[in-house]
Amino acid sequence: MSTPRTSLGELAALFARLGLTSFGGPLVHVAMMREEVVRRRGWVDEARFLDLVGATNLIPGPNSTELALHLGWERRRLPGLLVAGFCFITPAVLATLGLAWAYQRYGSLPAVGWVLAGVKPAMLAVVAQAMLPLSKRALKSPLMIFVSVASAAAAWLGVVEWAVLLGAGMVGWLESRPWAKGSPSLLPVAAIAAAPAAATAISPTSIFWVFLKTGSLLFGSGYVLLAFMRTDLVEHHHWLTEPQLLDAIAAGQLTPGPVFSTATFVGYLLSGPWGALAATVGIFLPAFVLVALSGPLVPRMRASKGAGAVLDAVNAASLALMAVVTVELGRATLVDWPSVLIAAAALALAFGLKWSSTRLLALGALASVLLRAAGL
Which residues of 286-301 are buried (b: 16+ CB within 10 A; e: fewer)? Predict the structure, then answer.
């Protein structure tokens, strides 16, 4: 798909707006990006967008941030990658920094439960709106349908995400072998740093190394971050207590943008503004490096029969994982009649009137506040 050259200012404006409005987690971020860059602007087509989503699953780090980086690379190469990533991350980091300051001063997080109670059911409609066209691209053969169904079943039974994606990729590779002229080249995945064996004191430098290791090794959604941080910060270094860690994760959920902004909250608690900066740079830096290295390989992977088959299978598995997470979110979200009403209205507006994701989430927040204020 050929589109006019995108200015860095346009990239900055779009991803800053997405960073300010993308509540609801990685699935919603992906859905909102698809609406903006595929449906509204035509910067990439559905097939390329799906390839980029699949590529983010092959490297560690925050998937939705990496997708923003890939899209920036698609439009303006390295300058676009830097602008898109920085503008997408910054709103979440600043909001989380504000929560960390309030937490240290007042000992608790601000109450925004009414807003989140409406955003969560609306985000189910946002994800469903994005998954339908993506499924048409991903499930393009009986084998890909099988891969998707098997991946969903494995995920439902508790198999970890990286194992599901690895298994799907192996199926794609095996299926391609009779027709491939050479061995397919998988996207390289390598940890770019290792943390010190132990940290004897809390300093911005030690905070940076801990979060650099996490950003270099963590596969899967931002929710896996809880397990990593518990091991490093609570059990190993004893820098945080369990309640502090849970509050930090909650702060990442309360703010828009990537859940990895939790690192900013933790860094501030440990060592003030410099600790927040060290943790933020540490956890996001690997994503910038890995996408800069892997971005040029995505078109080459698609052109290669073997690597393209792997990418197709990973795409089908990624779609299945999205579906499983959406069902689990639905079970946790639709707990009373206001949440069911908001979700139903959002679905009707998403598929009937083609409302944008931003409008749907705003509707959910407003409806929840009004319903709760009325005592319903």
Answer: bbbbbbbebbebbeeb
